[in-house]
Amino acid sequence: MTTESEVEGTADEPCDEATRPQQPGELVFTPRRRAKPPVHLADLTLAQRREQVIALGLPGYRAEQVSKHYFARLSSDPSTWTDVPAAARQVMAQALTPTLLTQTRRISCDADTTVKYLWRLFDGAMVESVLMRYPKRTTMCISSQAGCGMNCPFCATGQAGLTRNLSTAEIVAQVVAGAAELADGVIPGGPGRVGNVVFMGMGEPLANYRATLAAVRRIISPAPEGLGISARGVTVSTVGLAPRMRELAGEGIPLTLALSLHAPDDELRDELVPVNNRWPVAEVLDAAWEYADRTHRRVSIEYALIRQVNDQPWRADLLASLLQGHLVHVNLIPLNPTPGSKWTASDPGVEAEFVRRLRSGGVAVTVRDTRGREIDGACGQLAAAE
Length: 386
Hints:
Radius of gyration: 21 Å
CATH superfamily of the largest domain: Aldolase class I
Structural class: alpha/beta
Order of helices and strands: HEEHHHEEEEEHEHEHEHEHHEHEHEH
CATH architecture of the largest domain: Alpha-Beta Barrel
Oligomer: single chain
Helix content: 25-40%
Number of helices: 13
CATH class of the largest domain: Alpha Beta
Strand content: 15-25%
Low-confidence stretches: 1-31
Number of strands: 14
Mean pLDDT: 90
Shape: elongated
């Protein structure tokens, strides 16, 4: 049986999926050594940043100044740090704000209000993030891993496999990059700020638990500690790592947990979400209800509608029966098919009937606004093409 630590992996010992599965429900990951990403101030608490600066022979308060530039002014360019002595700027930049992401591609649609970024990391690994600006809010969708080891067959990232976990700073830097473009007025609509962050890009966030949690803390902590985005504007998605879901419930952070369910029955979910062999539907939903009970936050059930696979009326009825009476909301997702895939979105009439049956069963449901189809919007498509 796979232990939690094997499933999680760490930023220090990234894990690659070695075998699949040996026993029903068993996921085996083999750690392998990789060079670590450079340490960045976003990896550190403010106290640790002060220690780093003092070790450079500079006053500790300089750490707070540079942190304000990075998190409040969204600038890692030392030439803009005018409150820092010129002689110290480059030294501090090298120590605290090394380059983590190099933009490889940037494509947009929806009148340039949806932007997809493809980033190359220091070791050549590729990750994606997406900025989506709406009339009253802006959301950043970010990656927590390069690739993914969960092997969901309808997901481009899952089919690529896992390269490695991202560091805390590599996760946070995706938000900062998008927020900087928004603040600078690069995105149509005038200068603005990111108000929502969703961990729904590449990877399984709870399989990179420590870095994900630290990134959440940087995102929600006020400057100079972090970006100061409301915890209620942060959503962490999971395919259902039940032990980590329970652990997250105990962290005391009022973020939204999104469970990628995709099927209400174990027979189909075993196929669509292979980790279901380890933590089946009943156990995963129990962990979701524990999260809702402890945090008083509504759990989001993510359900990608796949034509003639999981969109039958009886599955809508079964899903409604499982969710009735709980603090929950269903987010139906018209599948964004990947090139060459046999999986495709449900017909509009089938989708409408699915929605009707959930609502008749007393379950709140919305259909996700589909953005980015014309720019390879599904997670992993750009990285796979590259």
